[in-house]
Amino acid sequence: MTIVWTVDAEKPRPEDLREAASLLAAGQLVAFPTETVYGLGANALSSAAIDRLYQAKGRPRANPLIVHVADLESAKTICSVWPDTAERLARAFWPGPLTLVLPHCGAIPSGVTAGGETVAIRVPGHPVALELLRLAGVPVAAPSANPSGGISPTLGEHVLEGLDGKIAGLVEAGPCSRGVESTVIDLSGTHPVLLRPGPLSPEEIAQVLGSDPEALLPSADKRKQGPEKSPGRMGRHYAPKAQVVCVQSEAEARACCAVWQQQGKRHAWLALQPGPGTILLPATPAEAMRSIYKVLHKIDKDLIGFLVVQLPNAEGRWLALRDRLLRASLND
């Protein structure tokens, strides 16, 4: 049975988190809230703990983990180099939804890095996560707290739906404010590269770096070189049980719904613009990201078998939502 500790999201008391922190440090698995999604935490210095994490999630070993630390100085101890680009981005966005990929110092087990020479690292922007990390006193590897490939959890109840009884504990502190996983920037090469879109747009990153947002996008010849450096890039992710079909236009969405209706299949239509029978997402990217996983969890609960999604444009903060929906529609 998974232990649940309910804490105040804004002002968590250390005494409410000490047991969870002790379990984490000892190598047990504890789920906890961040500003992005709930993470499944494991002591990043313990190979045994990392093994438990992969087993609990059913996660492919080739999919690396993000290491969470309490502050910038702790991040530097895990990396073998800390370039000026890392310093500028960390000072601009940490604590917050930004993950930096850098060469690691060798102390991190290969299970965390998928056998690669880099580590993905961030300082989360959530009071509960920060206090838990401070009390645990170890870097914590924490992918989303759900079975691999499924919908990420933004509420404690989502965590228990997939992992109750498989993990030692859950720190429950209400909904996550951002709602999708962090933006990941690779700083291990000759220039910064966006590996995973997230709440921070390419334009926001580029403004701090004084560069062109287009220069952050990976070139086709560099996307598949060596081990993966970031999670969220391997096959079907973030997916409900329903078959997801992504389209651009309202006409295409209507056509899908008409076919499913004729076949007697239970279906839904997810859109940013109101229409007959649509499930409407909020009109701003921040609100849409905050809502998307909650909506997909509700679609699962309603036993919807087929879902058509009108994609947002591939620009700015909409890029993250588009990425999650496209990956949810993949077949592998």
Helix/strand layout:
Blueprint: E1 3-6, H1 14-25, E2 30-32, E3 39-43, H2 47-57, E4 66-68, H3 72-78, H4 84-93, E5 98-103, H5 110-113, E6 118-122, H6 127-136, E7 140-141, H7 156-163, E8 169-172, E9 183-186, E10 193-196, H8 202-209, E11 243-247, H9 250-262, E12 267-271, E13 278-280, H10 285-301, E14 306-310, H11 318-328
Parallel strand pairs: 1-8, 2-8, 4-6, 5-9, 11-14, 12-13, 12-14
Antiparallel strand pairs: 2-3, 3-7, 4-7, 5-6, 9-10
Helix pairs in contact: 1-6
Instruction: Count the E strands.
Output: 14
| Class by SSE composition | alpha/beta
Largest sheet: 10 strands, mixed
Net shape:
globular
Topology-level CATH name of the largest domain: DHBP synthase
Overall number of domains: 2
Helix content: 25-40%
Roughly what fraction of the amino acids lie in strands? 15-25%
Uncertain residue ranges: none
CATH superfamily of the largest domain: DHBP synthase
Distance between the termini: 32 Å
Q: Please, what is the average pLDDT?
A: 95
